[in-house]
């Protein structure tokens, strides 16, 4: 069924009407102000659009941005089948807000307490991992720069549609850090270890045409055609059966970690579920 794989709290998300008004439900545990976190959420039927919305800072992201993304993931209405992630203005995202590195480092875990640092980063990663939920297909619409944390956000989506001015860069090692916002696994799965090493350890910029060749973007379109291309893709994704979409996403994402035998068994299990539902109609 369409809700298979949905976490229980998302099914019963309170205050759905508030979501379109950009406020999280009043009883959201994080109580995060989305606009203050540089985010906008628009829910239109089966399609949720999450906009990184600090164009004057090239959609640089703060800790609140990632916590806000996680809160959105927990609160989406059950009927949402496609999530589009986009950036306002010239760039998808310039990555972490560099202002976080200045001053006294307030808000950062400094690594001295291993457990606290682990919890801190895990909390930020939650802003990314929900995009793999099989309940919906996630699409990144990337124009301009997708740097560091921004590149990783695009990588955490199921499908990337890039404008011809898109520029991807894994900048973290140049700043003395590693990419830690869930991006290393999809990067390696898409381009392989050798190319991932080359991209990360040179921190070079990958332009749209190369991104398409490497499989980092499924489609490249002219900049002024990005919104239309994403709208066409969303419309196409909504044409297939909702339950089959959920089951197929679940099946495909486990394929890289499965043996052939395990994957065949997973196919049989999912198909049994589909057949039960189809014959019950
Ligand atoms: N943090 C804070 N402010 C940023 C920013 C960032 N990451 N990126 C851009 N801005 C600000 C600029 O300071 C500038 O502000 P002012 O108007 O006050 O001068 C404004 O946004 C517009 O930026 P530019 O004029 O530079 O715009 P551009 O279109 O010419 O260039 C850009 C865009 C290539 C993204 C360039 O701004 C840039 O290189 N930004 C820094 C990118 C970066 O190093 N990000 C960190 C990556 S590492 C990471 O994300 C993960 C991690 O954990 C470390």
TrEMBL record:
Q: Which UniProt keywords apply?
A: Fatty acid metabolism, Isomerase, Lipid metabolism
Q: Name the PANTHER family on file.
A: DELTA(3,5)-DELTA(2,4)-DIENOYL-COA ISOMERASE, MITOCHONDRIAL, ENOYL-COA HYDRATASE
Classification lineage: Bacteria, Bacillati, Actinomycetota, Actinomycetes, Streptosporangiales
Task: Specify the domain of life of the species encoding this protein.
Answer: Bacteria
- This protein's pathway: Lipid metabolism; fatty acid beta-oxidation
Where are stretches of biased composition, namely Basic and acidic residues? 1-9
Similarity comment: family membership: Belongs to the enoyl-CoA hydratase/isomerase family.
The record ties this protein, via InterPro entries, to: ClpP/crotonase-like_dom_sf, Ech1-like, Enoyl-CoA_hyd/isom_CS, Enoyl-CoA_hydra/iso, Enoyl-CoA_hydra_C
* Keyword flag Lipid metabolism: yes
Give the species this sequence originates from: Actinomadura graeca
Provide the residue span(s) of the region labelled Disordered: 1-27
Q: Which residues form the signal peptide?
A: none
Name-wise, this protein is Enoyl-CoA hydratase/isomerase family protein
Which CDD domains does the record associate with it? crotonase-like
């Amino acid at each position: 069924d369409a809700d298979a794989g949905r976490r229980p709290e998302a099914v019963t998300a309170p205050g759905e009407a508030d979501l379109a008004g950009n406020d999280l439900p009043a009883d959201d545990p994080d109580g995060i102000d989305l606009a203050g976190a540089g985010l906008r959420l628009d829910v239109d039927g089966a399609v949720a659009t999450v906009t990184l919305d600090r164009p004057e800072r090239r959609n640089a992201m703060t800790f609140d941005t990632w916590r806000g993304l996680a809160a959105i993931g927990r609160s989406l209405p059950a009927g949402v089948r496609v999530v589009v992630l986009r950036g306002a203005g010239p760039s998808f995202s310039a990555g972490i807000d560099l202002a976080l590195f200045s001053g006294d480092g307030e808000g950062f875990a400094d690594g001295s307490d291993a457990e606290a640092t682990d919890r801190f980063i895990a909390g930020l990663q939650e802003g990314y991992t929900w995009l793999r939920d099989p309940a919906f297909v996630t699409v990144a619409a990337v124009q301009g720069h997708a740097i560091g944390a921004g590149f990783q956000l695009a990588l955490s989506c199921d499908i990337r549609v890039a404008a011809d001015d898109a520029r991807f860069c894994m900048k973290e090692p140049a700043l003395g850090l590693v990419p830690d916002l869930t991006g290393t696994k999809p990067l390696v799965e898409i381009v392989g270890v050798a190319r991932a090493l080359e991209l990360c350890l040179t921190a070079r910029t990958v332009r749209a045409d190369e991104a398409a060749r490497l499989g980092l973007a499924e489609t490249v379109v002219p900049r002024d055609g990005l919104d239309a291309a994403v709208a066409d893709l969303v419309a196409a994704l909504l044409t297939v059966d909702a339950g089959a979409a959920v089951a197929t996403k679940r099946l495909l994402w486990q394929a890289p970690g499965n043996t052939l035998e395990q994957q065949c068994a997973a196919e049989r299990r999912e198909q049994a579920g589909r057949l039960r539902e189809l014959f019950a109609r």
